[in-house]
Amino acid sequence: MSKKAIFPGSFDPFTKGHEDIVLRGLKIFDEVIIGIGHNSKKIRHFDVEKMAQLIQHNFLKFPNIKVIVYDELTANLAKKHGANYILRGLRNTTDFEYENSISQVNRNLNQEIETVFLITSPKYAAVNSSIIREIHKYGADISPFVPFKL
């Protein structure tokens, strides 16, 4: 039985930190599905379909990485795609508190789901999408933080 993980997020934008988690996740899982979800609390800065295309293109050398856009509960998405794992990255204790609550709810919604947390590589610990959006909004160079040209 193959080990398949969903790596969910709004990825607005997808960062080098996200890329690092996906590539490290491939050492654990046979397949990683990057799920770009709709967050009802956020207004997107970058077009979701364009972001999906850029991410997919970024991982062309990896047939075991797929990118999808979804608008449903992550636990249901995982079940639909036969994934028993949710992959998440943690930068700090604040991330842990937030992600821990979500993982418990996902487990409640789908008993087959296990959430696996990877600690962010130190060189990406300060990188987050909110800061990158702000930098981009004011026309500064975001290329040090994203794995492709936006």
TrEMBL record:
Residues 6-134 form the Cytidyltransferase-like domain. Pathway: Cofactor biosynthesis; coenzyme A biosynthesis; CoA from (R)-pantothenate: step 4/5. Keywords: ATP-binding, Coenzyme A biosynthesis, Cytoplasm, Magnesium, Nucleotide-binding, Nucleotidyltransferase, Transferase. One of its GO terms (molecular function) is pantetheine-phosphate adenylyltransferase activity. Its cofactor is Mg(2+). ATP binds at residues 10-11, 18, 89-91, 99, 124-130. The record marks 18 as: Transition state stabilizer. It catalyses: (R)-4'-phosphopantetheine + ATP + H(+) = 3'-dephospho-CoA + diphosphate. InterPro entries: Cyt_trans-like, PPAT, Rossmann-like_a/b/a_fold. Its EC number is 2.7.7.3. Substrate binds at residues 10, 42, 74, 88. The keyword Nucleotidyltransferase applies. It is found in: Cytoplasm. Reversibly transfers an adenylyl group from ATP to 4'-phosphopantetheine, yielding dephospho-CoA (dPCoA) and pyrophosphate. NCBIfam families: coaD_prev_kdtB (TIGR01510), cyt_tran_rel (TIGR00125). Homohexamer. Belongs to the bacterial CoaD family. This is Phosphopantetheine adenylyltransferase. The gene is coaD.
